[in-house]
Amino acid sequence: MRLNQENLTMKTRFLLAFVLFSSLLLGGCASKDVVDSSAEGAVIEPGAELVEDERDPYESFNRKVYSFNNQVDTYVAKPVSDAYLWVTPTLVQTGIANFFSNLKEINVVINDTLQGKFKQGAEDTGRFAVNSTIGLLGIFDVATELGLEKNEEDFAQTLAVWGVPQGSYLVLPFIGPTTSRGIPGSVFDTAANPTTYVGFPVQLVSMLNTRANAEGALNFIDEAALDPYVFTRESFLQHRKFLITDGESEATDDALDLESEFYEDDELLETESENVIETTTQKTEPESKKNSDDVEELNAVSDYEQSKAELEKATLEYRAVSKELEAVQQ
């Protein structure tokens, strides 16, 4: 079940982290057939050893946990989430989502400050204050209507800003994808989230809301991805990179790709122009000769037609004169 990391208690986090690293230390790797799982659409046969991606050195273990999470999601989380969506009116779902999103603003403001984003921190503080008062504890997102856009900041991003490396990609039971840097980040975010300290019913509603909001993305992965594991991993890592760099790296990459495509198109156009010029030069002389022959032929035909017309005219005149002579003779 793919639950949001912030919705588990700190005790559960530490326990899962301990179980994970214990499993990694005890797990062994068998030397068998090698399969390149980084290729999208790769088929992983039982007993095959995976080619290690440097970002995902525990892929074999991660895939097993990923499969386990999918089974739990299919037989437990999804049915409960579907029932929640069926029973709860859309307007109420929106209010619940806004409420829990507003609680996360506390964590956002803390990480704004830790990352030195003081201007953004002031805006996020204002957003939290507006939605908590005018928006009735965040049920209504009034701040967005006032131009205070929502930002996403967490402690894992803060650790990245402080220079902590990403570490290995991991898939945790019941939690889903994360990284070595993301585990302590999740512990801090859980501690900073007020939902952690309320009763289980509120936490359950928060988890149901999270699963319901992920319904569209999960369906897309299942229907469109050739290898859902690889698709999920790449999407997660790219999204984390986007958040850490505030979208600058993606914008830079897009600009570089656009510039590259521009120069490639320019070079292609230049090459095609040179080919056209060369081809035209090669064909100019034969085509000129051909055109000259055609003109001469047309002139000859014209002269023939003119001579034929003059001959016919002369013949008619001769016949007319002959008739006149015959008439005179008679």
Description:
This protein has about 325 residues and is mainly alpha-helical. It folds into 2 domains: about 5-245, no CATH class; about 245-305. About 70% of the residues lie in helices and about 5% in strands. It has 11 helices and 4 strands. The protein has helices at about 10-25, 60-85, 90-115, 120-135, 140-145, 155-160, 180-190, 200-215, 215-225, 230-245, 250-330, and strands spanning about 35, 50, 170, 175-180. The strands form 2 sheets. The chain has a two-stranded parallel sheet. A two-stranded antiparallel sheet has the order 3-4. Strand 3 and strand 4 form a beta hairpin. It is elongated, with a radius of gyration of 39 Å. About 25% of the residues are buried. The model is unreliable at about 1-45 (pLDDT under 50).
The count of strands amounts to 4
Uncertain runs with pLDDT below 50, 5 residues or more? 1-47
Q: Could you tell me how far the N terminus lies from the C terminus, measured between alpha carbons in angstroms? A: 127 Å
Main β-sheet, in a few words?
2 strands, parallel
| Arrangement of strands in the largest sheet | 1-2
Share of β-strand residues: under 5%
Q: Which H/E pattern describes the elements?
A: HEEHHHHHEEHHHHH
* Domain tally: 2
List key phrases describing it.
single chain, 330 residues, mainly alpha, 2 domains, two-stranded parallel ribbon, two-stranded antiparallel ribbon, 11 helices, 4 strands, elongated, disordered N terminus
